[in-house]
């Protein structure tokens, strides 16, 4: 029998022998996300979708009270009706794409809480029929290029959309750390923008009625504002009416202005 407070943290893969530096940094981010979720009271199960495939990923996450889909490789363009060959195209792990898209679609059908981080934010959009901007070009401040992987994160603020159903509990702006060269373009069904960057890029999306939240930044990064990951996870699980204790949320938690920019 699964614990009522079970949280599945879903990643692309546990092994990247062709990209050891990237794997080491990715593993650090994953461990910090798991640590933060465990500290918030969740019983965490780590699921590598690209290693397991769709059927096993769905089986392993069945019964989870909530899901976190973390960052990773570019989503293969065929999943959102685009072509390959774009600038700065990264590696693709189609097995993970397929499995994570199916996972978010099932979560939407069931009303399961989902927090998507970076790639996971984009997976939510693509799973519900949205599209992506394939590359932001050579001049943008959402990622530091040409530097060691440990220095790739860029700090910037995002503006919370007035009336946001899930992020509305936070202050009007948040300080964030990001490392992306793609972004949400057309929104999937039922989704709306929850936050913008200064240049107009979509930085967060939420569903108009379901407990689905995607953020383009990395609240689990070592340089992120302390407590931001747990606060965002709490916001989306509160929207689902659940808590880490496996109980219904009777009232909204105090506003998380302490993690604002």
Any overview of this molecule?
The protein is an alpha/beta fold. The chain is 27% helix and 21% strand. It has five helices and eleven strands, in the order βαβαβαβαβββββββα. It has helices at residues 20-39, 49-61, 94-110, 119-127, 228-239; strands at residues 6-11, 43-48, 66-69, 113-117, 132-133, 154-160, 173-178, 183-184, 191-197, 202-207, 212-215. The strands form two sheets. The protein has a nine-stranded mixed beta sheet with strand order 2-1-3-4-11-10-9-6-7, with helices on both faces. A two-stranded antiparallel ribbon has the order 5-8. A hairpin with a 4-residue loop joins β9 (191-197) and β10 (202-207). The longest helix is centred in the first third of the chain and has 20 residues, at 20-39. It is globular, with a radius of gyration of 17 Å. It starts with 5 loop residues before the first strand and ends in a 22-residue tail after the last helix. Mean pLDDT is 92; it is low at 250-258.
Which terms summarize this structure?
alpha/beta; 9-stranded mixed sheet; 5 helices; 261 residues; 11 strands; 27% helix
Q: Helical content, roughly?
A: 25-40%
How would the global form be characterised? globular
How many DSSP helices?
A: 5
How many angstroms does the end-to-end distance come to? 42 Å
Instruction: Report strand order across the widest sheet.
Output: 2-1-3-4-11-10-9-6-7
Rg measurement, Å: 17 Å
Question: What is the averaged pLDDT score?
Answer: 92
Low-confidence stretches: 250-258
User: Could you tell me the strand content as a percent range?
Assistant: 15-25%
Structural class category? alpha/beta
**Could you describe the largest sheet, including whether it forms a barrel?**
9 strands, mixed
Order of helices and strands: EHEHEHEHEEEEEEEH
What's the β-strand tally? 11
């Amino acid at each position: 029998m699964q614990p009522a407070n079970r949280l599945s943290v879903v990643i692309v893969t546990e092994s990247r022998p062709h990209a050891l530096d990237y794997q080491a940094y990715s593993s650090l981010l994953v461990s910090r996300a798991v640590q933060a979720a465990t500290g918030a009271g969740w019983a965490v199960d780590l699921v590598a979708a690209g290693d397991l495939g769709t059927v096993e990923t769905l089986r392993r996450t069945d019964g989870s009270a909530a899901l976190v889909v973390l960052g990773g490789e570019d989503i293969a363009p065929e999943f959102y009706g685009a072509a390959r060959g774009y600038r700065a195209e990264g590696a693709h792990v189609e097995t993970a794409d397929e499995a994570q898209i199916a996972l978010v679609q099932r979560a939407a059908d069931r009303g399961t809480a989902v927090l998507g981080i970076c790639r996971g934010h984009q997976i939510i959009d693509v799973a519900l029929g949205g599209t992506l901007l394939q590359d932001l070009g050579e001049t943008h401040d959402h990622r530091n290029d040409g530097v060691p992987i440990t220095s790739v994160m860029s700090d910037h603020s995002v503006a919370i959309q007035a009336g946001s159903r899930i992020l509305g509990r936070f202050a009007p702006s948040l300080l964030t750390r990001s490392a992306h060269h793609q972004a949400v373009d057309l929104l999937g069904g039922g989704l709306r923008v929850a936050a913008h960057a200064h240049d107009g890029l979509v930085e967060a999306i939420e569903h108009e009625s379901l407990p689905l939240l995607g953020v383009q930044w990395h609240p689990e990064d070592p340089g992120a504002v302390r407590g931001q990951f747990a606060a965002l996870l709490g916001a989306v699980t509160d929207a689902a009416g659940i808590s880490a204790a496996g109980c219904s949320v009777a009232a909204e938690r105090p506003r998380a202005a302490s993690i604002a920019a």
